[in-house]
Automatic annotation (TrEMBL):
Keywords: Capsid protein, Membrane, Transmembrane, Transmembrane helix, Virion. This is Spore coat protein H. The chain crosses the membrane at residues 12-28. The lineage of its organism: Bacteria, Bacillati, Bacillota, Clostridia, Peptostreptococcales.
Length: 595
């Protein structure tokens, strides 16, 4: 059985001082559970899928050398200390060239995590990081797949949007391996030039959310703030924005004033097209909603305009995409946790008080254009098959690095590559694919404004056949289960309902499936809720734990208190259990432990 180990550290989030805890790694002895887990790679690519091969990503080795005194200082001083320390870098142990660098940790609260992220500055531009002299090494400790940020940034590039490029780096510090990293291209004049944009344009980043403790700031974004109440607008914006070169602060103030003064509706629709590249903005926003990144609208983007062009319009450039594809912050658990969720509402979530987004989403014409584009992207460009191909190819590139275990030659300064169990790569990747499948069902339900009941879904069978998949998604967009059909004969409908049964453990729910089909069989997956109340969601598991003993869950037939367990596979990272079953008349199913 799996045994849990946890550790907690106090976390300081920049701008808002709160006490948090880091939920530590959970270790289990593989092979001791009586339940069969998904075989390695199962469900990542379904039989019959044709997966096109992308060129395999390269992982660049990077050797950082520092004097031991400097290295000790870096790791023992206040993690928020940003004074740079000297070192040099080589691209191989044998390379003669020593590239002089200055090194510090990067990030905010993530500096307290066991695996550190780095900002490294070279004396001149480097070809291996797209000509820049800045290396942003993201540890991705909170992402056990080590794929989320790479997947997200590649999506923006796929649509031709200005966005940072991402590449994998194997980092060695004084010849000891310290982890697989993702370099995210710095957003600066080099990125603009590489994207075919004027490198001298205005490039700014809203930092209201970081300065929320200031008396004059009462919201998390400039957009919705009455900038005209500020007499010295340029000084005010300089103090509360990050920026490159020499921005046109007047242009930014004009945009903020227009956003503040213009109500959602026809006037906002007309003006928006004059001030933003509409199609680019829609793609930028659509990707955020597809990957579940709805907390990025405070400071996780940059604004750009070529103020030297007579008809220049604003563009948004994405940043910081590690907490995506179901990964997010949890009170008391911080961000290195195994909770899973995909129900991030496109309108109700709040948009970090950013009225660019809020007024866009409450302007009917703009919202409909977004929804039309999202439906296309979900079916055509970023289909589930796209993510199967991408994760398959990324895995080939990084699996050797991900598989490196702590030893005398690896992880002297850091504990391991990522939080959570090592060796669960199949389940971590499957979790990303499950997120896409479930997130898309949720989004489509809300786009169509489906008004069906909660925890109830009825499917008409006339248009389904063997090989199809039935999704039992309720009126709020939550998927209770799915059936990958092996055989179907007769009948016209199948109904799934979920109801609470208090005395059933460890999952206090019953799945009731009713059909008039003469025969319907296939691989049935049931999903359960395991989240925390803070986000308005529920926990059906009998304890407040993202994993607990969920590796031992099986599906069981339930009949007047009697339980017949079925051979099942489980992935608790996705809150799901799967079995092969033939359904007739009415079935009552529960989740229990193997008897």
């Amino acid at each position: 059985m799996k045994e849990k180990w946890s550790q907690y550290k106090s976390i300081i989030i920049l701008g808002i001082i709160i006490t948090l805890f880091i939920s530590g790694t959970v270790f289990y002895e593989k092979g001791t559970s009586p339940v069969s887990h998904s075989p390695k790679g199962e469900n990542i690519v379904d039989e019959g899928d044709t997966i096109e091969e992308d060129s395999i990503e390269e992982v660049t080795p990077l050797y950082l050398y520092m004097e031991e005194d400097n290295l000790e200082d870096l790791y023992t001083r206040d993690p928020l200390d940003s004074q740079r320390l000297d070192g040099y870098i080589k691209l191989s142990q044998q390379e003669g060239e020593e590239r002089r660098v200055e090194v510090r940790f990067r990030g905010d609260s993530t500096r307290y995590l066991p695996k550190k992220s780095f900002h490294i500055r070279f004396e001149e531009g480097q070809d291996f990081i797209f000509g820049s002299n800045r290396l942003n090494l993201n540890a991705s400790y909170t992402d056990p797949s080590l794929m989320r940020e790479k997947l997200a940034m590649d999506m923006f590039k796929e649509l031709g949007l200005p966005a940072p490029r991402a590449k994998y780096i194997d980092l060695y510090i004084n010849d000891i391996y310290e982890g697989l990293y993702i370099h995210i291209e710095r957003i600066d004049e080099n990125l603009l030039k590489n994207a075919g944009l004027n490198p001298n344009g205005t490039l700014v980043r809203d930092e209201f959310i970081r300065n929320i403790d200031k008396e004059e700031i009462d919201r998390s974004s400039l957009f919705g703030y009455n900038i005209d109440s500020i007499e010295e607008k340029e000084d005010f914006l300089k103090e509360n924005f990050d920026y490159r070169n020499k921005p046109d602060w007047g242009a930014l103030a004009q945009l903020a004033s227009w956003i503040y003064d213009t109500p959602a509706g026809e006037e906002f629709y007309r003006g928006f097209q004059e001030k933003f590249y509409l199609e680019e903005f829609i793609d930028w926003l659509a990707i955020h909603f597809l990957i579940g990144d709805v907390d990025s609208f405070g400071d996780d983007y940059w604004l750009y305009i070529d103020h030297q062009a007579p008809n220049g319009r604003w563009r948004l450039i994405p940043w910081d995409k590690d907490l995506t594809f179901g990964s997010t912050f949890r009170p008391g658990e911080y961000v290195d946790n195994n909770f899973f969720a995909y129900e991030y509402h496109m309108i109700q979530h709040g948009h970090r008080n950013n009225d660019i987004i809020t007024k866009f989403m409450t302007t009917d014409e703009l919202r409909q254009k977004l929804y039309d584009r999202m439906e296309y992207l979900m079916e055509e460009t970023f289909s589930p098959n796209y993510f199967k191909r991408k994760t398959s190819n990324l895995r080939k590139a990084i699996e050797d690095s991900v598989g490196i275990q702590p030893s005398e030659e690896a992880f002297r300064l850091h504990s391991q590559n990522h939080h959570g169990d090592l060796g669960d790569d199949d389940y971590y990747i499957e979790n990303i694919l499950d997120f896409i499948e479930l997130r898309y069902g949720y989004l489509k339900t809300h786009i169509k404004q489906d008004k069906r009941d909660r925890y109830r879904a009825e499917i008409q069978l006339a248009n389904y056949k063997a090989g199809d998949t039935l999704y039992f998604t309720d009126g709020r967009g939550w998927t209770m289960g799915k059936l990958e059909v092996h055989a179907i004969k007769g009948g016209d409908s199948i109904l799934m309902e979920v109801e609470e049964i208090e005395d059933i453990l460890p999952i206090n729910r019953l799945w009731k499936i009713t059909t008039n089909a003469e025969k319907i069989s296939g691989q049935l997956t049931l999903y359960y809720r395991n989240d925390i109340y803070y986000f308005g969601r529920e926990n059906w598991y009998h304890e407040d734990s993202p994993l607990g003993n969920q590796w031992s869950l099986v599906i069981g037939r339930y009949n007047k208190g009697e339980i017949e367990t079925l051979e099942s596979t489980v992935n608790p990272y996705s809150n799901k259990v799967t079995t092969t079953i033939e359904l007739k008349n009415q079935e009552e199913l529960i989740m229990t432990y193997q008897q």
